[in-house]
Specification:
- InterPro entries: AIM24, AIM24_sf, Trp_RNA-bd_attenuator-like_dom.
- This is TIGR00266 family protein.
- It comes from Thiothrix eikelboomii.
- This protein is 20% helix and 42% strand.
- The protein is an alpha+beta fold and 240 residues long.
- The chain has a single domain, classed as Double-stranded beta-helix (4-Layer Sandwich), CATH 3.60.160.
- A six-stranded antiparallel sheet has the order 5-6-3-10-13-8, with no helix packed on it. Strands 11-12-9-16-19-14 form a six-stranded antiparallel sheet, with helices on one face.
- It is globular.
């Protein structure tokens, strides 16, 4: 049985221990080290159509790395693209929707499927555009977030409002909608209410938020990847 272990406190490795015959798949370029008993191949998971959608709609790699323990038990170390934590998520009773760039690795009995989402969520959010990644099957999934990862429990009549850029993944049974207001969406209707919400969004610095309702888990990260990208872009310009 494959065992995932997050090793290290700052920018940790994902330590994967495989028994002979075990298989995992992971994001392209995430393999750091593996023992000689393991084989690594690049494959299109889910076929050409799914691979194309992952690449052009979600920014994921066209090919994923597939690692198999073909000659005996073996270990490997994986690392995500962004600096930050990783979380091992049990998939089965709960299935999850992943934000862009969150996927690190999964056992072979977990599938990542592409599905469409509502036009409003697609146009105004950073949660995958018109397509989002959704898990299926039963096994283990590893996700990464920029900074520290924390899990939140959504309960009926206790909606959570989360900055969209800080969401890593969430239980697909949850209802979610994008909003530019952090208050009660039923207050201040009409054009005046919309303008008020937009002004509040700008002045508060929150921008677009996700409102979750129902029952299930949401995993969030402490840092905003978009802000990190802007800082790196500025550093690049300054150093040019």
């Amino acid at each position: 049985m494959t065992t995932f272990t997050v090793t290290g406190e700052i920018d940790p490795f994902l330590h994967v221990s495989l028994k002979k015959g075990d298989k995992i798949y992971c994001e392209s370029g995430s393999m750091v080290m593996m023992e000689a008993t393991l084989d690594l191949q690049g494959r299109m998971s889910g076929g050409l159509g799914q691979a194309l959608i992952r690449r052009f709609a979600n920014g994921e790699s066209f090919f994923q790395q597939h690692i198999e323990a073909t000659r005996g038990d073996g270990d490997c170390l994986l690392s995500p693209a962004l600096p930050g934590a990783m979380e091992i998520v049990a998939v089965g009773e709960a299935q999850y929707i992943l934000n862009d760039g969150a996927f690190v690795a999964a056992t072979s009995d977990v599938a990542l499927q592409v599905r469409t989402q509502g036009v409003g969520n697609a146009l105004f959010g950073q949660s995958g555009g018109f397509f989002v990644m959704e898990t299926a099957g039963k096994g283990q999934l590893v996700v990464s977030g920029f900074g520290t990862i924390f899990s939140l429990d959504v309960e009926p009549n206790k909606d959570l409002i989360i900055d969209n850029a800080h969401v890593v993944c969430w239980d697909k049974q949850l209802h979610y909608e994008l909003s530019v207001t952090t208050g009660n969406p039923r207050q201040g209707g009409g054009l005046g209410g919309l303008l008020g919400n937009l002004v509040n969004s700008v002045t508060s610095g929150e921008g677009v938020v996700l409102r979750f309702s129902g029952r299930g888990k949401v995993y969030i990260c402490s840092r905003n990847p978009s802000s990190f990208a802007k800082l790196m872009a500025k550093a690049g310009v300054a150093g040019a």
